[in-house]
């Protein structure tokens, strides 16, 4: 089974970028907020973040994988057992609810940020 891939990046104009993916490429909209949105890109997830300025000092660019909660927990244990430091500590939100999710981030040896996510089954089916 292929796992959905996700990529997050900054946009100078979040709304214009969102509309490009939705209207030009016929992608569908996932979650949407004032500062970011998820676009379902051919079965995968792109998260578009509104940049506060053109040359933002701290980049949030990263890539990652969307897993089941059990797979996410397995990787979390493995990464902890190897002593790999977290860029973003593990967090789970809305446990037991239809909108449950979790994530954590680490660096690879080259400094690339890798994010591991899970969503409840109801959200996962829409990705």
UniProtKB/TrEMBL annotation:
Transmembrane segments: none
Gene3D superfamilies per the UniProt record, alphabetical: 2,3-Dihydroxybiphenyl 1,2-Dioxygenase, domain 1 (3.10.180.10)
Record-linked Pfam families: Glyoxalase
Record-annotated VOC domain positions: 3-119
Protein name per the record: VOC family protein
PANTHER family: PTHR39434, VOC DOMAIN-CONTAINING PROTEIN
């Amino acid at each position: 089974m292929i796992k959905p891939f996700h990529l997050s990046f900054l946009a100078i104009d979040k709304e214009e970028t969102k509309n490009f993916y939705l209207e030009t490429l016929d992608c569908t909209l996932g979650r949407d907020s004032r500062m970011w949105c998820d676009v379902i890109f051919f079965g995968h997830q792109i998260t578009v973040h509104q940049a506060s300025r053109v040359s933002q000092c701290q980049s949030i660019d990263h890539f990652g994988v969307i897993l089941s909660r059990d797979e996410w927990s397995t990787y979390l244990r493995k990464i902890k057992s190897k002593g790999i430091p977290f860029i973003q500590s593990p967090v789970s939100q809305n446990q037991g609810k239809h909108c449950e999710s979790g994530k954590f981030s680490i660096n690879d040896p080259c400094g690339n940020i890798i994010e591991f996510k899970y969503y409840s089954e109801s959200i996962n089916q829409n990705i």
